[in-house]
Amino acid sequence: MSRRRRYEGKAKILYEGPEPGTLVQHFKDDATAFNNKKHDQIEGKGVLNNRISEYLFLRLGEVGIPTHFVKRLNMREQLIREVEIIPVEIVVRNAAAGAIAKRLGLDEGTQLPRSIVEFYYKSDELDDPLVSEEHITAFGWANPQEIDEMIALSLRINDFLTGLFLGVGIRLVDFKIEFGRLFENEMMRIVLADEISPDCCRLWDIETQDKMDKDRFRQDLGGLIEAYQEVARRLGVFVDNRPGDGSGPVLVSSK
Length: 255
Description:
Elements (H helix, E strand, L loop, with lengths): L4 E4 L3 E5 L5 E6 L2 E4 L4 E4 L3 H18 L6 E4 L4 E5 L2 E2 L2 E8 L3 H6 L6 E11 L8 E2 L1 H6 L5 H23 L3 E15 L2 E7 L7 E5 L9 H4 L5 H12 L2 E2 L10 E2 L4
């Protein structure tokens, strides 16, 4: 059955959903970095990101974070509510890594004085530039109330995920999220959209400091799929069969 494709990004495809106001979000195996300047196919990545993101969105929903997630449909796809994406990426940083370490001359891994929220304009052509609240309101990407709501939700998400990952021996260094406007009848609310997976988080093993995220691809460290598998395993959504039985890893249902 052919489906109407609504949007294709670097790591996902959105199709029209089975009911009005819904979409099907398909996770691809594409690995990209530096706004698609570096690109590869890594078999199984989409399956893992689908399951990890499903698990995290469900857990966030349980603590009252509004999201676009409805349910997982299969190994690679989720049913989501259609939202109007706000063209601003939110990055929450707990420790120095990536752009902020380079920009401010900080040693990677340095704990920041407090969690820092940054805004980036969603534009691959411009390499997602860092912007301020002034830019966001001046260009009409979001109004001051929406910005306040996104910051408040981002910090709540950070608090919850920091504790969740800490409980499985992982340090949440930083993460990128997106929000959208969900229209229901005459009401509009801001909800968490897109995904949360090792593609958009920096996750370090607390004991070894090993990177368990897309930096393994960005920095040519190798072992990306094994790192993602380990994150899924610790979260309880992935188990290995016995070594050598030939059937490979098995994904298990969410709790």
